[in-house]
Amino acid sequence: MxxxxxxxxxxxxxxxxxxxxxxxSTLLAPVDHFPARGFPATVELADAxxxxxxxxxxxxxxxxxxxxxxxxxxxxxxxxxxDITAPFLEAGNKLSELVGMEGMVxxxxxxxxxxxxxxxxxxxxxxxxxxxxxxxxxx
Length: 139
Ligand SMILES: C[S@@+](CC[C@H](N)C(=O)[O-])C[C@H]1O[C@@H](n2cnc3c(N)ncnc32)[C@H](O)[C@@H]1O
Fold this sequence. Notes:
The protein has helices spanning 23-32, 39-48, 66-75, 86-98; strands at 56-60, 78-83, 105-109, 124-126. By secondary structure, the chain is α/β, with parallel strands linked by helices. The radius of gyration is 15 Å and the shape is globular.
């Protein structure tokens, strides 16, 4: 099956295994999860995070947003993605629109070392395969 031939919104009825509860993550996973080991690494990260429904999280270094979309769908939370590479945000927001998630995830341009969110507006945050790019991460 060709990925480009499928409208993910037409696949809501497709049952998914518990570890992959959202059809489009499975469908887009080969291209929208950037960590080493790809989508399985995102699932393991999600399994380890204490996220509650309705939480508002920041994904620092979100790439094109696969992990943010996966977490938002799985936990019914909101994810603000932040990335320093502007074209990734454009692609990420377009993919979110494609799968009808523009209300659950928003991606914006910025440096993760200077978060543009008041801390009291967030319930938590995470970063995946990003800190190797930050020379002062221990300070
Ligand atoms: C290997 S990708 C991981 C992307 C995403 N976390 C994922 O798991 O799919 C690393 C990302 O970190 C971003 N990045 C690097 N330095 C950054 C910084 N100082 N602030 C925000 N994003 C940064 C890059 O633009 C890139 O999108």
